[in-house]
Design a protein that fits this description.
The chain is an alpha/beta fold. About 35% of the residues lie in helices and about 25% in strands. Strands 3-2-1-4-5-6 form a 6-stranded parallel sheet, sandwiched between helices. It has a 4-stranded mixed sheet with strand order 7-10-9-8, with helices on one face. Helix 4 runs parallel beside helix 5 and helix 6 runs parallel beside helix 9. It binds nicotinamide-adenine-dinucleotide.
Length: about 230
């Protein structure tokens, strides 16, 4: 079987998770290289366990290797748009963690580069691929529950992120609520036309020093007339 040769960018929390899945659960994938500017012995040892041949501290080595067909962009949020454009230019297919960027113009530029290069791009909206969420969506879509007038999503992150993560995450709405925005659109089968949000830094963990919040309520109106609410902590 021909395998797709993959380069992983970023070997932090999610990079290692995707790496493990690719190495152990996707027989069509060959996880060949990993790049992280903070490459260290622990990551090298993890890479060896995953059967990864090449460890780099420079992502360019992945972009410049013509044998690599696809990249997994799992680095910090502020690198995604740039890496998408770099990968597209090098003709590589792309899986990119959310969000693409926090600036609409940069997102559009990245999507344009993907279109121009004719490569594939998938963004890490994982919940659509979770059978539990899919069952809720399929039940709503079947009409068995009647017309959905209220779409309500509650989600919690299991713990605080580090402040190093928070300062480049783009803030709770781009970093965490983004999954809930994806879910409400998926469940409602309709697009949001109006949105209002409140946020507060209530945990005392220091989110406010980066102009961020740790608690949020979002209210929405949908094109089909339904109302939505998301609460996050
Ligand atoms: N879809 C999801 O459910 C989900 C879950 C967690 C994280 N994420 C996303 O994944 C991304 C990473 O999150 P994380 O929790 O793994 O963070 P993390 O801080 O644990 O890891 C980020 C890694 O990227 C590396 N990095 C930074 N700059 C880089 C560069 N220029 N080139 C290559 N590597 C670089 C860092 O050294 C670090 O190892 C974020 O954008 C986050 O929003 C998505």
């Amino acid at each position: 079987m021909k395998k797709v040769r993959i380069g992983l960018l970023g070997a932090g929390r999610i990079g290692k998770l995707h790496g493990e899945n690719l190495a152990h659960a996707v027989p069509e994938a060959e996880l060949y290289a990993v790049a992280d500017p903070f490459m260290n012995d622990a990551t090298r040892s993890w890479a060896a366990d995953m059967g990864i041949e090449k460890c780099y501290d420079d992502p360019e080595k992945i972009f410049n290797d013509p044998s690599i067909e696809a990249v997994f962009i799992c680095s910090s949020t502020n690198t995604h748009a740039e890496f998408i454009m770099r990968a597209a230019k090098a003709g590589k297919h792309i899986f990119c963690e959310k969000p693409i960027d926090t600036d609409l113009a940069k997102i559009e530029e990245a999507l344009e580069a993907v279109k121009k290069a004719g490569v594939k791009l998938q963004v890490g909206f994982v919940r659509r691929f979770d059978h539990n969420h899919k069952m809720v969506r399929d039940t709503v879509a079947s009409g068995r529950l009647g017309k959905p007038n209220i779409v309500k999503v509650t989600s919690r992150d299991p713990d605080h992120q580090s402040m190093d993560y928070i300062k480049v995450s783009g803030g709770i709405f781009m970093d965490m609520t983004i999954h809930d925005f994806d879910m409400v659109r998926y469940l409602a089968g309709s697009e949001v036309t109006e949105v209002t949000a409140y946020g507060a830094a209530l945990s005392g963990a220091g989110y406010d020093q980066y102009d961020d919040v740790d608690t949020a309520i979002v209210m929405m109106k949908f094109e089909n007339g339904a109302l939505g609410v998301i609460d996050n902590s």
